[in-house]
Amino acid sequence: MTLTNRDIVELTEWRRKLHRQPEISNEEEKTAKEVVSFLADTGPDKVLTGLGGNGVAAIYDSGKNGPTVLFRSELDALPIEELSGVPHASQIPGKSHMCGHDGHTAILAALGRQFGRERPASGRVVLMFQPAEETGNGAAGVVADPRFGEIAPDFAFSLHNLPGVPFGEVRLKPGVVNCASRGMRIVLEGKTAHSSMPETGTSPMPAISELMPALPALGRATFADDDFSMVTVTHARMGEAVFGIAPAHAEVWATLRTRRDERMADLCAAAETLVKEIAGRHGLSASWDYHEIFVASVNAPDAVEHLRRALDEESVAHGEEALPMRASEDFGLFGHSARSAMFFLGAGERHPALHNPDYDFPDDLIPIGSKIFMRTARNLLG
């Protein structure tokens, strides 16, 4: 089963409509309603809304025994001002689809069109439109939602477009494909003083001067090593924006990154010990908390083989180059309860990079991504 030319035109127009009205993580209410409305004509057997926040699951059921196969896309955009200059550019200041989630959503909607015309021969297909991927809490919210038990997929598949890879080629491999990561917010507290008498207070300035180079030094091994870890300082601030006060308060934000989930606990412990030691040496109190927690995305070998079969049958070139990646992706959480795999679909070697203000999803990837997913579903379910 393939998309018609009319399907492709309508899906492209709809993708651009989503692009013009982006909603960032945890705010995707209108986008979710757009998905439900667009799929209404396809007659899904069940639609779950509000999953893990603003998630939508459209279920196409054969009525016969068989596995449940989930395909996932993301709904959220980014807090970035768009500078692409395309006619369908974002109409929302400071927000834009600079990661291509609008295109991924259109690819899943293409599956809905096709399964609306002909159900799988067995089992069920679930189209999972997930919220809040960019902040890492979307997949966690969906999986924790009690209604996710109604889905309980046996297989879960996803894709992400990837600039820098030749257009339409795929990158796919078993094992780790995206790193685990989390944001660590460190707070240091001392005592303010008049800037003419700094010795009467306790400034965090010497401590953060030590901390900012010491945190990245916790990284170890090369990226090719399973024990790889990395710390990137992303933000720091100290005191108030005035000249008359020696500061008491400081914050340092850092992203901790590992290839393996097991290694993350060790890295967190090392960072916490470092903070306590430096703060104590400078007479400061210290606290920390964690945000945007991503587990490692690990492709199951049998799920990868199903995708490889589909790629070969659809004559899509594929390889393992560029994998794994340091970047994180919250799809990995679906792999804790299902055999899962994500592949990366080339957006072009010279295409603007993800999260850049001049990025726009290449519409011609919609039929390519959908035919890979469709072939995978038909091979599994008939």
UniProtKB/TrEMBL annotation:
Arranged from A to Z, the UniProt key words for this protein are: Hydrolase, Manganese, Metal-binding
Q: What are the GO MF terms of this UniProt record?
A: hydrolase activity; metal ion binding
Q: Where is the signal peptide?
A: none
Gene3D superfamilies documented for this protein: 3.30.70.360, Zn peptidases
Q: What does the entry list as the binding residues for Mn(2+)? A: C99, H101, E134, H160, H355
Q: Which InterPro entries would you find in this protein's record?
A: Amidohydrolase, Bact_exopeptidase_dim_dom, Peptidase_M20, Peptidase_M20_dimer
Q: How is the cofactor bound?
A: The Mn(2+) ion enhances activity.
Domain Peptidase M20 dimerisation: start-end pairs: 182-280
Which NCBIfam families is this protein grouped with?
amidohydrolases
Query: PANTHER family of this UniProt entry?
Result: CLAN MH, FAMILY M20, PEPTIDASE T-LIKE METALLOPEPTIDASE, PEPTIDASE M20 FAMILY MEMBER
Q: What name does UniProt use for this protein?
A: Amidohydrolase
Which species is listed as the source?
Mesorhizobium australicum (strain HAMBI 3006 / LMG 24608 / WSM2073)
